[in-house]
Amino acid sequence: MNLSNEYIPAVKDLIFRMADDELILGHRNSEWTGLGPILEEDIAFSSMAQDKLGHAQALYQVLTGMGESDPDTLAFGREEKQMKCCHLVEYPIGEYDFSLMRHFLFDEADAIRFDMLVNSSFEELANVTRKFRGELKYHTMHAKAWVIQLGNGNDESRIRMQNTLNECFPLALGIFEPSGFENQLIESGVFKGEAVLQERWISEISHILKLANLSLPDIDSVRPSYGGRKGIHTEYLKPLLDEMTEVYRIDPKAEW
Amino acid sequence: MYGGGYIFEETKNGKPESEDQGKLKNFEAKIAAGEKIEPSDWMPAEYRKQLIRMIEQHAHSEIIGALPEGTWITRAPGFRRKMALMAKVQDEVGHAQLLYSAAETLGKPREDMINDLITGKSKYSNVFNYPAVTWADTAVIAWLIDAGAIINQVANSKGSYGPYCRALERICIEESFHLKYGHDNVVFLATGTPKQREMVQDALNRWWKPIMHFFGPSDKISVHTETLMRWKVKMASNDDMRQKFLDMYVPKIWELKLTIPDPNLKKNQTSGKWEYTEPDWEEFKRVINGDGPCNKERLAVRRKSEEKGEWVRRALMRQDEQYVTPLS
């Protein structure tokens, strides 16, 4: 490991944040299986959900290599307050407009984050994100196509998309909640930090939202939904974890 | 998944006699020679009607079948099972997409088929009107229901209608992975802790009846389907498929030291046929006509998702574009 010991807690925190986001959003997106507005969207959300789960597993595996438990125990064996996911991913799937906007806002951030991490000084992380980037390309392509299509669809779809953007934006800003380890991540060369990521994200989504005929809410007038990175979650996470671990908890030592 | 227990109708209207006898003769000769009928070929009205009915039932079964297993995606224990189940159920939805397209080539739009599903006008496989009570139920479904589906679908893939056969060939390849996944899952439970073993035995007890119903009513009481068999719409008799299933899977179930809940199940060594307690066909009829444990719930979920997605479909419509029947 090419990482000095003093940076390990900062790196672990970053990877937990990323992995938990991927796990919870993958779980949520999988809830569309069988219920999408058209069959093709069921299938698309399921593919993306599978990718997200794959990312989560690979990221937990990096943590396992750093002395943490195995991926199943990390994903299925932690309590709510130990989870570091952002609030955006915790919300129920709601209507398709919400799930689509969440997917758009999250995956645009995810794609940029992975882009930034391919040059990380922590090679294990750089290696896995290099693999994820190819998949994210399709996720963002999918989100962009649909957001532009529905933003320009008819009055009903445009209003729905604008309302859901207004609802999602503060939640999405929670993705970039500073972790308390920002300086260490930056000085170690592991990650350039949430502030840089957020700035690039704003610029990217502004461009696409313009094509979609949608207006980004004024960033200074909204309060970002922070807390997730510190283990303070919305009311939706606990029931999700209870459901996700229902079978696993019957006997965590059993092989399923 | 899916497969059997298609509900055929006795041929009433559009009897072959009312068709152009010359064309009918050519059509039947083509089928007898093992050639495929393609969407632009002449076909008797009854052939078209029965095929739409059958392919539509099959497509509906795929999307309704996604529901009992789909509810376990969010509860699957561990990454391996969670991702595999997601991929499996996703395949089923993909099969629905393929099959609706195949049925559309016969002239009925997907939207109309889905409307007939949610209004209860068209049917789907009876097995999905039973609940998946525990995780082990999903394992038994993925193994044994998918196994039954393969037997049925391999037979049907040798049928006469080109688009349906081609869809089935692709579907069968994916189903064979589902079967492996389901078998692996059942093996883990059957050879796991006492609790896991108990779960899988209970699930088998619950699912044996729907499995026996799966291939449809006994030949003794089925509607006459000679014409459909000659036209290679229906490819094997219900009882023949059931026998084949028992031949292939009873030994595998016993190998895992699981008990099949039918004291009369045994192979008659003289006839080579399986003997079993005759399934309750009255119950089968009751359930397929709407009075099963989950019919209302399944259709309500489907209806709600159609209603919730309506605005999306509306927004995708273009005034200047018209519906076009797919060609193959």
Q: Give the class-level CATH name of chain B.
A: Mainly Alpha
CA-atom Rg of chain A in angstroms: 18 Å
The total of helices of chain A stands at: 10
Count up the domains of chain B.
1
Helix content estimate of chain B: 55-70%
Uncertain spans of chain A, ≥5 residues at pLDDT below 50?
none
Briefly note the CATH topology name of chain A.
Answer: Ferritin
Query: Helix/strand/pairing class of chain B, anyone?
Result: mainly alpha
CATH class of chain A equals Mainly Alpha
Major sheet summary line of chain A: none
Mean pLDDT value of chain B: 92
Brief summary of the model shown:
The complex is a heterodimer of chains A (256) and B (328). Chain A is an all-alpha fold.
Write the layout of secondary structure elements.
The complex is a heterodimer of chains A (256) and B (328).
Chain A: H1 8-30, H2 39-65, H3 71-76, H4 87-90, H5 96-117, H6 123-151, H7 155-173, H8 182-187, H9 194-211, H10 237-244
Helix pairs in contact in A: 1-2, 2-6, 5-6, 5-7, 5-9
Chain B: H1 21-32, H2 45-70, H3 79-104, H4 110-118, H5 135-156, H6 162-190, H7 194-213, H8 226-230, H9 238-255, E1 266-267, E2 274-275, H10 281-288, H11 295-316
Helix pairs in contact in B: 2-3, 3-6, 5-6, 5-7, 5-9, 6-7
